[in-house]
Amino acid sequence: MKLKTLTTAIILTTVPMTGAFAAALDRSGQSIAAFLQPGNYFEAGISVLDPNVSGNVKSGWTPNPALPAANIGLENTSVGEMAGDYYFPSAALKLQVTDNFSFGLIYDQPFGADAEYKTDTKTTSAALPPALANQGAFHNGTEGTSVEVKTQSLSMIFGFQPTENWNIYAGPVYQTVKGDVQLRGVAYGGLAAFGDYNANIDEDGAAGWLAGFAYQIPEIALKTSVTYRSEIEHKIQVTESLGASGLAATINPALGYTPGQTEITTPQSVNLDFQTGVMANTVAFANIRWVNWKDFAIRPNDFGHASKFIPGKAQGFDLVAYTDDQISATVGVGRKLSEQWAGNVSVGWDSGAGNPISTLGPTEGYWNVGLGAQFSPTPQTFIAGGVKYFWLGDAKAQVASDFGTASYVANFEDNDALAYGLKIGYKF
């Protein structure tokens, strides 16, 4: 029984929201499923994430153990909803130039972050010294800690099909990255350290590459692929300020300061995709993804220099870093319901990238369940949509100077997220 048409119809419904709320900065999942569709093909889609992420300042935490009064009003204080809604578009074009050669373009936004501590949580006790009054754990007055990172990626893929069963592909990848970060409040050291730090990451473009191979047996709807994506190294001009912090004085050539660019290297990754027919009109599918977050770090030039003046941190520390690599998996079943309708159900898991983790993204992996549906008004066109519900892993949030230790400043528990996706496609 040939399932080639069934394969195309059902597996496309799994594509919206492949990543959505993954570990560290991972977002799109970097799928190349569109490039592996038969014939000529175009798709465009959008995914939307609505997270609910909040926590509480750690019981007993104080920004300065030598100053117990600094803890007044902070213990068990809610840090409020800190994860912002966001969306990311995607698009792909695949051309079967000859029987043996194909070409593809895939646009996505692979990595990103959007977090802001909005709640005006303050410590107003008269027992506090003026330097710490009106500063919450993650706030300074009404101004909160925030981070926004955006990337865009365009992959150009060249494929060679020596037989109907094999597809060998590779190509260059162009990626841009930009962002803004501000740190506020006594969790980052108040006026003694980074409680008034700002960084604007200018947009920068750089190139990397991908390569992989796929094997298929159309008669039984079997298709498997392995895709490797390289690191992409950016050298970026970051505009930084330390506000009124005492560390502002360290940005001085007399103290060893040297102006310079900041290196940000987005991580290498491997995607493994598999599907097979299991009965008439039904296929099973799976995706496994590995991302090398353990070797990822961001240390802006001025920040890195100033961090060396923190007591006990002579080597300095990173603004953002992770202790573990990310592994995620999705498994599911898709079924053709009629000539025009198909659907799927899926279950997903993500390992996270370490715990404790940065206050700028305090979740530790997830479990999710998803439902997808596809309507094909004609054999050449389709509209696909889906929804996923995420149970986000509990996390202990730590500031940058505590990285690599068990210390943390806040607990984030019982959080969740909803993701929605919509896609249109055309086969020609």
UniProtKB/TrEMBL annotation:
Membrane topology, as annotated: Multi-pass membrane protein
Keyword terms: Cell outer membrane, Membrane, Signal, Transmembrane, Transmembrane beta strand
Annotated InterPro entries: OMPP1/FadL/TodX
GO molecular function: long-chain fatty acid transporting porin activity
Location within or outside the cell: Cell outer membrane
Signal peptide start-end: 1-22
Database matches in Pfam families: Toluene_X
One cellular component (GO) term of this entry: cell outer membrane
Taxonomic superkingdom: Bacteria
The family this protein is said to belong to: Belongs to the OmpP1/FadL family.
The protein, known as: Transporter
Organism: Acinetobacter bohemicus ANC 3994
